[in-house]
Amino acid sequence: MLNPAVFKAYDVRGLYPSELDEEGAYAVGQAYVELFEPRVIAVGHDMRESGPELAAAFAEGVRREGVDVVHIGLASTDMIYFAAGRFDSPGAMLTASHNPAAYNGIKLCLAGAAPVGVDSGLPEIKQTTAQLLADRDRRPLTGKESSVDLLDDFVAHVHSFIDVGALRHMKVVADTANGMGGLTVPRVFEKLPIDLDVLYPELDGTFPNHPADPIQPENQRDLRSRVAAIHADVGLAFDGDADRVFLVDEQGRGLSGSTTTAMLAVRILDKNPGAKIIHNLICSKAVPEVIREHGGEPIRTRVGHSFIKQVMAETGAVFGGEHSAHYYFRDNFRADSGIIATMFVLELMSITGKPLSELRVPLERYADSGEINTHVADPAAVIERVARHYGAAQQDRLDGLTVDFGEWWFNLRPSNTEPLLRLNLEAATREECDARVAEVLALVTGG
């Protein structure tokens, strides 16, 4: 079973088994090989109950096309990117990331961890998969399979981004939400001068404690309480496949992805003076301001990992950040990694001797709305109506509609999969932000 709706902008994701099952995963593996003709593919899966079966089915589809498979086993998504970079081969991660337990999916990448997305092969995989499911041709199983344990190598890779010897003693709480961070995070911290306290480290794809979606504030509640209770220096909230991380300061207050992007930019520009740094267009205006103030060159992109990785490759940017807490590193094969981002933050705290609550202050300059989703019948028509209303302002269509009045701005983007619009707005003060949000939403809803 493979519902065509499981093909999203950047991956394959749907309900198991009603939308995506073993037969569907098998066909996606076949389609990938037919389109890209690799010699070998690295395959891993997260802790969801359906993961091993879906990974085996995907691998069988690959092997029946005569291509070898290297099984990584249980892995975080950034471990699969590391494998794709280390082996210079494509990778497939069976995961639904932060989605609830009933879901599973497939994240794909090319050799060297290059992206596969809406503009880099995913629509073609969708079309080929549909043809293969109709034909149901089972070829001889000629591809070989092997397995490798990459965790130690991955840990060494993560440590290589910073001066481990510069780290001071700190107390850190990590909420891995029963996700893959429960495997990777303790190993990364094992030999560091860090007292690590892990919430919900057990790998459990039913997510018995709370959803593995840290962008929702309610899913950071336990972490914030624990940070305050044990007087920790920092809290880390990982998503289900552990490629994203949200930070909580020692006062139990969360940092946005924009603030963390700016903070990482400061540290990375210390190491790479004058470098180019990517930020997506819904990041705070503070991000490009901070990049320029520290001698870097900000580059604005569309939202989404495939776009950011492509622009990083074209421009030679050393780092890229998204408001959604994806952080990309040139020396990580331009792939995102929450745990590498964590290392840079701990290094910055160690070298400056400043707490996170102090480091964040000069980076938080504006009030923002967060992402507000509104269901509408015709997203394109609504965008045009809003654009006409704000015709006097500076506008661009890089990704949806961005309207910029200088003292306040917003972006209105259509969803790739649903009839809804996503609003992100920023203004100088909370009062103005709230007022402008009400104003724009009234236009969106026709009120």
Describe this structure in words.
This protein has 447 residues and is α/β, with parallel strands linked by helices. It has 4 domains: 4-149, Alpha-D-Glucose-1,6-Bisphosphate, Chain A, domain 3, CATH 3.40.120; 152-248, 3-Layer(aba) Sandwich (Alpha-D-Glucose-1,6-Bisphosphate, Chain A, domain 3), CATH 3.40.120.10; 257-363, Alpha-D-Glucose-1,6-Bisphosphate, subunit A, domain 3 (Alpha-D-Glucose-1,6-Bisphosphate, Chain A, domain 3, 3-Layer(aba) Sandwich); 367-445, Alpha-D-phosphohexomutase, C-terminal domain (TATA-Binding Protein, 2-Layer Sandwich), CATH 3.30.310.50. Helix content is 36%, strand content 22%. It contains 14 helices and 21 strands. It has helices spanning 22-36, 51-63, 77-86, 122-135, 151-159, 181-189, 221-230, 257-271, 286-293, 305-315, 338-352, 356-359, 379-389, 430-445; strands at 12-15, 40-45, 68-74, 91-94, 103-109, 145-147, 170-175, 194-199, 234-238, 245-248, 276-280, 297-301, 319-321, 327-329, 335-336, 367-368, 372-375, 394-396, 401-404, 408-414, 420-427. The strands form 4 sheets. Strands 1-5-4-2-3-6 form a 6-stranded mixed sheet, with helices on both faces. The longest helix has 16 residues, at 430-445. 51% of the residues are buried. The mean pLDDT is 96.
